[in-house]
Amino acid sequence: MTPADLATRLGIPSGPLFFPVTAYGPDGSLDLDVYRTHVRRGVEAGAAAVFACCGTGEFHALTPEEFEACVRVAVEAADGRVPVVAGAGYGTALAVRYARLAEAAGADGLLAMPPYLVVAGQEGLLRHYREVAAATALPVIVYQRDNAVFTPETVVALARTDGVIGFKDGLGDLDLMQRVVSAVRAEGPADFLYFNGLPTAEQTQLAYRAVGVPLYSSAVFCFAPEIALVFYEALRTGDDTTAHRLLDGFYRPFVELRAQGRGYAVSLVKAAVRLRGLDVGEVRPPLHEPTEDHVKQLAQLIERGYALLEDGK
Known about the structure:
This protein is of the alpha/beta class. The protein has twelve helices and eight strands. The chain has helices at about 5-10, 30-45, 65-80, 90-105, 120-135, 150-160, 175-185, 200-210, 225-235, 240-260, 265-275, 290-310; strands at about 15-20, 50, 85-90, 110, 140-145, 165-170, 195, 215-220. It has an eight-stranded parallel barrel, surrounded by seven helices. Helix 2 links the parallel strand 1 and strand 2 (about 50). The longest helix has 20 residues, at about 290-310.
């Protein structure tokens, strides 16, 4: 798949972007059979793309060998029906290694995570992502968050870089994003892609859509694809009544529950997948599991979310 092919497929409003959790067995090792089932179910439920081994998939916790195995299984499970984008990160040398492993495993693209630990200047960030993009034939989406924050001028330079096709924002600064979109519109390629990458992105997607960011990641799709799909369709068609009903009754309470613990953007999602009947195991340290009370609240919230779908019929 060429960069243009991936850009076209991800740019078509056809469904939520699926970020599967990574499945572990009781001993903490990879459970690739369960992972295959998780990815396959997501594709069959209507995902537009699979983003394997990214933030929700605990990229930070995987060895290179585990990473390659997971990406390969995700590609097999997707079976060409939707593109598979893999995470790549750490310092430049390791990010290049992960990028090449993803390419060898059959991925269609890369989500380039922030460099490890360091707070770099714009020149260094630009060089880092250009070296990652030059290392493989895979198209690259650059992920802004934490210690990787870009000026509009740097994003224009990235957008002009061969192999870089998109920009995902996990920072949440809408003023900055508006200036980024405006600068690239004036000086960069017209088909550059933008993604809302905040945790539980549905909560902010109405605002992101207004500044020109049409695509978003959906962690909720991991465990409640029906809810995620109804919300996506409400956004696509301008059905604000349905979108607001789900925001008020499900997404806002979910975000408030997620805020009760550090790392819950991953561990709460993984607990929800288990509640829905697929044993994907626990998170690896340094993340920790939600409390028993929070899991009970989560179960009630999922039930409420599905009830809201019935209310809207």
